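Revision sheet: structure tokens.
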Amino acid sequence: MLRKTGWILSGVIISVLAMGSPVSAAFAESDLIQSPTGDVMRINQWEMGIHVRDDGPATAEFRMGMAPGWELGVDGIEDDGVGLNIRYQIVGESKSSPAIAVGISDIGRDDLSPYVALSQRFPQSFVRWHLGVGGGRYDGIFLGVSTRINTVQTGGNGNPISLMAEYVNNDLNLGVSFNFSQGWHLDIAGVDGDLLAGIRFKGTF
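Predicted:
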């Protein structure tokens, strides 16, 4: 039933794709910098954060895995109010096929941002590719790559660092996320020539 609902949601998304509002900060466990992926948060997992752009709005975000394959979030954007975000992962990632997710962002705002996103690891690689199409803030086709590395520290296993690049809304964005302490992430990115920075905390219920 949930998978059927996801396919229906996918059809709705494709049918209402539209040009729209500018992209705002995302930077989340299941996102790149400003574009969604085919991933969703695990059930009982949650995350909250705040990000500021030097020539743009500040954004506060909260999201959680509310059921298997389902992710629910809410964000508050300076000068643009509060929006609800929902995502459903139709298919999980495997060696032969990508994860596929559909979702709608900005529910409650003037312009909805629907999307379909795919994600998969390149064969024999630690790098993943991401591809999608959306309306509203996502403005057509978006794509990206990401990888995760570990720093080596004396007496420890190191702290994961995530590197990512994306092309969305006609902008090429580059970012890095430092997992500097358990659950804590420091995010830094160049977005359309501006600096975007923020902090996130991820936990479980």
